[in-house]
Request: fold
Amino acid sequence: MAALQSLRIIATDLSQSQNRVSSGLRVQSASDNAAYWSISTTMRSDSQALSTVTDALGLAASHVDVAYLGLTSVIEVLDAFKAKLVASKEPGVDRGKIQTELDQLNRQVHSIAKSASFNGVNWLSTSIAEIQDADTNKTSIVSSFGRGTSGIGSVRTMDFHLSEVSLFNSTGGGLLEADPRDVKSIAGMRLNDSYNSVSRWSTSNTDTGSRAYTQFSFSGPLTFDDPADRISFTVTVDADDPATGVPPPYNPGHTTTVVIDRATLDAANPGLNGVIETNTDYAQVLNHALGQANAGASVHASHKLWDASIKGFVHDPVRMSLYTDENRSLGLDGSYVEISNFSSTVGSGGFGNVADFGTRALHELTFNSFTMYKNGESEDGIEINFRFSVNGEPSTSHSFNRTYVNDLLGKDSGEVETVAEMVILLQSLIQPDWPDVIIEDNGAGKVSIKLDPNVDRLSGLQTSVSFTGISVSIEPLVTMDFDTIDIVAQPELTDSYIGYLDAATAKIIDGAAALGALRSRIEIQSEFTRTLIDSLDKGVGRLVDADMNAESVRLKALQAQQDLATQSLQIANSSPQAILSLFR
Reply:
């Protein structure tokens, strides 16, 4: 019985060793080692999942390659398109024939966009309800599989926004379609520069007050041939204007009496020989006389006139101007010029009693509603930045985006629809830094921005309200449609078409670059996943694989033991038989 028991134990060990050698596994079932079996089973499952991830990455790489090829091909066609537009500007060319070529190139672009499809997926010709919505315009690529600290497996993805590469979208907004996200003047905050094809908005918008200014037409000559000949008047500058809203007391300004005689003319310009013949001569004499009377630091005469369209002076052969220089060294805040008590023995030359107040800066924004649209690159949507300043003081930086507008106005659309809403928006942005700036609805469809006269008494050119450094995160925008280019129907827009193509091509190049970056990331992720699979397989092997050398030696040893145990059993069985034979 002892020999039989030994044989049974050896047989069990031999069977186990034979299984390990034949399967190559040390742990084949949970009964072998429950912990190692559980870990290895899970890791094998993860390895299979990662293998599927590798296949998915390969499929995604194909999508990227096809889209990239499509974009680069379109860029080449657009370059040829632009060359044709430039050629159409040459004198004497047949625009009709060039337009025919342009139409063929247009069809080629559409053909490329529609053909850039892999396995039914097309990134260049899309159908997205709102292409700038970060949630709806993205496509997800399976990138990895892993387990968190909880032990639950999850699939991770890489997101790519199709708004970056879609050339044509069924609801608009593709790279070769008009971009609907143009915020235009931002409710009047900025002014349009030039092109109507690409948004070219100015980055600054400043309103200044106007200085006290008068003009008159010179009539002469004025001859001073008698020592008694003279012109005299009183000049008052930079008095406060109650109409500006500044509180009393009101400063009456600086007053000076001016006398012009033959000696004044000779001192101003001896070459005049006592005769003022032109407005230029008269301005020269007046300036000298004002300086001699100690009024020249604040009042200036000129033979030029102020042109508001260019915000500068232009020469005039007859008329003259008289204006305050607003010299603050006199300690005055107003902008005012007055000529009174005028008398002359030689005639007025068109000059006489006159008075004019300057104005304070008042910036009025002609309101137009606008929308802070969603943006595939940012969850907060479009961002607008600007700097603000008054009276030339150091400016402050301000910005707002879709989220800011929605939170402030209690909306979810990003729209600024009324003057009242724009007032609330600007007040929230500007008044924390500029509490003395009054921002209000003027009742005529405009937002009024001005300084509180109870705090700031300045008037004239030294008052200003300035928006500078205005920028929108998504600009420049393409606001023209590629399919609308027609140099026959609208030849005057050829330059605009060229500018549009530059902007559109730049966007497509950015899209191709984004695809290139995505392709590189896919390659890196694929290589990592393959390496990870190999590492998992090695890890599982360390836990459950048998040591074939040791198991082979053990197998031979057990086979020898089995032979010895069998012989022992035979010996044990033969002894009782010998004893039984004695009883026969």
User: Anything to note?
Assistant: The mean pLDDT is 84. The chain has nine helices and 26 strands. The first helix runs from residue 2 to 23.
